[in-house]
Amino acid sequence: MEKHERFIDALNYRRSIRVYDDAKEIEDEVVKKCIQQATLAPNSSNMQLWEFHHVTSEDLIKKLAVACLGQPAATTAKQMVVVVVRKDLWKQRAKSNLHNIQNIYAKNPKEKQSTREKFARNYYGKLMPFVYGEFFGLFGYLKFLISWVTGIFRPTYRQLRQSDMRIVAHKSAALAAQTFMLSMAAKGYDTCPMEGSDTLRIKKILNLPLSSEINMVISCGIRKPEGVYGERFRIPFEEVYKHW
After folding, report:
1. What CATH number was assigned to the domain covering residues 3-87+164-225?
2. Residue 80 — φ and ψ, nearest 5°?
């Protein structure tokens, strides 16, 4: 089977499953492998401001199910994966990227640095601290003002406020979450992304810092037929597709 066809099969197979089969188990290592594949997802500036909390403990799953408002997708789940945004770790992640760049170009003397190398070093050493750096939200508005003035004269990046960077981090985490769910579908496992939850309680259950943010909770298991709530419905493609 062609790779493209395998992807289409996984895409069509994936549904948001609301009821899982209690008699069918899923393997921890398979789920872990799918999470590992999720880390290959594209993300903003390769900052990887995410964590994936793989929950297999029955006690924790029960607590998370309560925090997920008792919805069947949570109460019948065999395992859960909590996708967490860690924007607060931007310094460490920028430093890791910079260290990787330094290793790549370790043999190059400083006086012979290529344009690409200089750009990469400055990107993680200077630009990322400028983009993610904050001081009680005030620095973000200053950056926004600078970009607004710059934008009068030329195209410029404008999403520089603290709220903007939160959106950027959540978009990256969501890309990883979708990659995880498609990887699970390719293995014949089922998932359901849940946004209806008490995120503060989830942080307490998993002992997460307040500075972290819950992107979504994904329940995992093997579907029951009644776990699929009807045929898939989508708005007609012509209404959402705009060709310029």
Report:
1. 3.40.109.10
2. -140, 150
